[in-house]
UniProtKB/TrEMBL annotation:
<keyword id="KW-0966">Cell projection</keyword>
<feature type="domain" description="CFAP91">
    <location>
        <begin position="4"/>
        <end position="156"/>
    </location>
</feature>
<comment type="similarity">
    <text>Belongs to the CFAP91 family.</text>
</comment>
<dbReference type="Pfam" id="PF14738">
    <property type="entry name" value="CFAP91"/>
</dbReference>
<keyword id="KW-0963">Cytoplasm</keyword>
<keyword id="KW-0206">Cytoskeleton</keyword>
<protein>
    <recommendedName>
        <fullName>Cilia- and flagella-associated protein 91</fullName>
    </recommendedName>
</protein>
<dbReference type="GO" id="GO:0005930">
    <property type="term" value="C:axoneme"/>
</dbReference>
<dbReference type="InterPro" id="IPR032840">
    <property type="entry name" value="CFAP91_dom"/>
</dbReference>
<dbReference type="InterPro" id="IPR026720">
    <property type="entry name" value="CFAP91"/>
</dbReference>
Length: 261
């Protein structure tokens, strides 16, 4: 009389199929009881292998029913021959099952080997790619060094070809002062000149900024308009025209004031 609601769907809460209780009459052996070893998830629902097993069990029961009785001595040889044939048949079937299992294991082994080979190929390709990248970087660095050395040697050759005969040249003062890249404006440190050693002489020293007396004199020389600020009161804007109408800008300012309030 009560209803329940669960957060799980039926598939998550489903158990094994229901098997009702049964009673076996005395003297009867139902064929269904021979499948009592099969349970849900272990042989059920039945597949091709289970169907073949059921057919073999039926054949074996029919063979057992057709065996000659043990009370007749003349039928013992026939019974022994039938049992030998069945034993050979069972061994042949067992060998077939072993071969099938071996084939399945061989396929699994092939898949594992193929997967391992693919992974190894990927690792090899990645390793080769990394080596190629390293060689490319080393090649680019070597090319840059060669280009740098080439530019340096070209500059040296150009400097040597300026004075091939080794003649002494007189100093051209006008040329040095017109060229801002000459030793006059930008001397090299390898010639024994270091610009940072006398950098304090480039500092601006002003009497009016560095001394109190200079500041007082500078303040006295400034006009009154600099030290005394004059504020002019703005004239009010006319909101009406000469004819007595209110200007549009004035109406807009009133509306804006109202909206702001």
């Amino acid at each position: 009389t009560l209803g329940t609601q669960t957060d799980y769907r039926d598939g998550e809460a489903q158990t094994d199929p229901y098997s009702p209780e049964y009673v076996v009459p005395s003297g009867s052996v139902p064929e269904l009881l021979t499948l009592a070893t099969l349970t849900w998830g272990r042989g059920l629902p039945a597949g091709l292998a289970e169907v073949e097993m059921i057919e073999r069990a039926r054949e074996k029961r029919a063979w057992e029913a057709n065996l000659p009785a043990m009370d007749n001595a003349s039928q013992i040889a026939k019974r022994r021959k039938m049992m030998d044939d069945m034993e050979r048949k069972e061994w042949a079937f067992r060998e077939q099952e072993i071969e099938k299992l071996q084939e399945v294991r061989l396929e699994v082994l092939k898949k594992l080997l193929r997967r391992r080979e693919e992974n190894q190929n990927e690792l090899d390709a990645k390793r080769l790619d990394d080596q190629w990248q390293n060689h490319q970087k080393a090649k680019e660095e070597k090319i840059k060094k060669i280009q740098h050395d080439c530019a340096l040697m070209l500059r040296k050759l150009i400097a040597k070809r300026k004075n091939v005969m080794g003649k002494l040249e007189r100093r051209d003062i006008i040329k040095e002062y017109t060229d801002f890249a000459s030793q006059t404006y930008a001397p090299l440190s390898r010639t024994g000149y270091f610009p940072d050693n006398h950098s304090e002489r480039y500092v601006v020293k002003n009497f009016y900024l560095n001394t109190f007396a200079g500041l007082c004199e500078l303040e006295a020389s400034l006009p009154d308009s600099v030290t005394h600020v004059k504020i002019k009161v703005p004239k009010p804007k006319y909101t009406t025209t000469k004819t007595g109408f209110i200007r549009r800008s004035a109406r807009l300012e009133v509306e804006l004031a109202q909206v702001h309030q």
